[in-house]
Design the sequence.
């Protein structure tokens, strides 16, 4: 399936360390607690140890999140409760620290970066250096309206995936212990749900959710639109890169590359909501094994996200009814990843207990 | 129902501020996000604002947890996978920072205090000043085996409740923004489940769980023992203080007082597992309205905890299969409470967004 990736294709992924996982499992059982009493935090600690190839895992001090912003042709067709101009406005909110994920990133001492991958604006009101940095990986203004036309050209898809890999490499060079890919884009649950429908082979009615909070008539129309997109894409969706081209968007394709880059470098990732999980589904189709480097941060209210998580074999850490996107659900779960690491490293052993 | 509390009884509780809740609800809707997109974090922010009488709520900087340690007569009767000597050994682990909740408290910058309320040891191996401090509120060595005898005398129950109120008052005087009561005591899920069965009017089979991980025969025996305790206590359990006396323990009664003290002072509490939630159920029977000052930190694997949470109308923040006790599940949820407060206070408003 990787042939369509062209020069971006690489060999199979290295899996997380089975030896470190084994050591971590044994250490969990030796901690001063009943066997299994830390529940999912034990699974999380074992996963981290495997990703790091170290038991106990080292600290998760350098958490780095990147928000991939982009507009979507479908946002002109009534699939969102908000106008597309909100996407560009929110880029400013990420930069000024007022976006939800920015508040959480400050709380958790995480780095946050926003990139305009496909915003339907030139962001000319930004200061010149900031504007250059934010637009450094820009692919195009908006992506195509997927019920009428392909989201991207194949070259744009490859360029977006390459951009995502490059962004991951940059973040990893800066010392990332844990990566989060976030999304911003009015209308983006439509291509994300379409990609998940294509990946799972299910119709629109199983994947379509209310996104920003659309009403029943808009929800019904959104389903029609996704089914039209799936019909238009036809058999091409068997190839994940072709599926991104037909049904995705520049920002989602960049998110796919970001996950490929993280997995190739062996850096763990916390997934967020429907857009992030759609990217993970596609990335794991492109290069099987990507999912082994991923943990699901939260369960979104979008039905497609839960379906894709099931397919990937992931159970989210949080289930709080979040549907903000931006990477916010993953960012909210960061303290749990740190807790898992610290518990495995710092708890006393049963054998240490005073008699 | 408060008559049995004797001189500890007081008038009705002040509820959280409806005005601040209303302000917080309006502010949630004005933040730069789709309406309701922060899910349960919005409910949490509104609850905090109500408890503090302030919108946005001030920071949750001073989180203070107190572990009430005690042994239980039933631990001589095969209801735990661990010997009762572990309780005293774990007091050392709390003091040395190696207990699970101690690791989490360090991570979250929370204060942690351990008190010997009913440990079946004089802890003579502790340094004299520390020993005096840890035993300052000690009620007795172990509590009675509830299937054979009352856990406490009525005077001990009242003394334990008074101790819990005094401990809460001390923590609040030190500036607590958020309180957590933790438990340590081999066998303690048995009296906790018995109290919940009594409070809900259900038989042992609905409330009995595996605690530290007992096998099927031990589980069957634990049910028998709880039913015997309920039969022995009879109609006395209609009075919550009498129920504590018959079925509880010194440490659980102190935990009840701790919650009464917090609610009387209007300081919010994060509940933990079965022992903490049993205490909340009893405290809310003693003084209706205590639950309004509580949020549930996590869902334990003990069935009684979920039943009691349903009765109290609380939905936990985390559901990670934790069953460690110690206050660990509540402590793991502390960052979410802080997130809720920060999001309400620091996110941009929709009206601030660039056009």
Sequence:
């Amino acid at each position: 399936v990787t042939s369509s990736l062209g020069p971006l294709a690489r060999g199979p992924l290295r899996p997380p360390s089975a030896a470190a996982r084994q050591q971590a499992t044994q250490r969990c059982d030796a901690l001063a607690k009943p066997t299994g009493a830390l529940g999912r935090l034990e699974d999380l600690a074992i996963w981290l140890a495997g990703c790091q190839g170290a038991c106990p895992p080292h600290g998760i001090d350098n958490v780095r999140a990147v928000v991939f912003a982009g507009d979507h042709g479908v946002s002109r067709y009534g699939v969102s409760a908000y106008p597309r101009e909100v996407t560009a406005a929110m880029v400013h909110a990420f930069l000024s620290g007022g976006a939800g994920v920015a508040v959480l990133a400050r709380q958790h001492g995480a780095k946050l970066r926003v990139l305009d991958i496909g915003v339907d604006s030139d962001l000319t009101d930004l200061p010149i250096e900031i504007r250059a940095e934010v637009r450094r990986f820009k692919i195009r203004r908006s992506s195509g309206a997927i019920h009428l036309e392909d989201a991207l050209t194949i070259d744009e898809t490859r360029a977006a995936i390459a951009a995502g890999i490059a962004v991951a490499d940059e973040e990893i060079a800066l010392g990332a212990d844990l990566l989060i890919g976030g999304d911003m884009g009015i209308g983006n649950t439509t291509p994300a749900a379409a990609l998940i429908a294509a990946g799972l082979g299910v119709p629109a009615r199983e994947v379509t959710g209310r996104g920003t909070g659309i009403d029943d008539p808009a929800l019904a129309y959104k389903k029609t639109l996704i089914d039209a997109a799936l019909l238009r894409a036809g058999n091409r969706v068997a190839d994940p890169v072709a599926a991104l081209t037909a049904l995705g968007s520049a920002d989602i394709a960049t998110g796919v590359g970001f996950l490929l880059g993280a997995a190739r470098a062996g850096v763990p990732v916390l997934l967020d909501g429907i857009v992030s999980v759609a990217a993970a589904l596609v990335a794991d189709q492109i290069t099987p094994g990507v999912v082994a480097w991923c943990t699901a941060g939260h369960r979104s209210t979008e039905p497609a996200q839960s379906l894709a998580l099931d397919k990937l074999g992931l159970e989210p850490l949080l289930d709080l009814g979040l549907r903000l996107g931006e990477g916010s659900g993953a960012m909210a779960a960061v303290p749990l990843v740190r807790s898992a690491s610290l518990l495995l490293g710092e708890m006393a052993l049963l054998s240490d207990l005073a008699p």
Summary: The longest helix of chain A spans residues 154-173. The beta strands of chain A are 63-70, 111-118, 178-184, 269-271, 294-296. The longest strand of chain A covers residues 63-70.
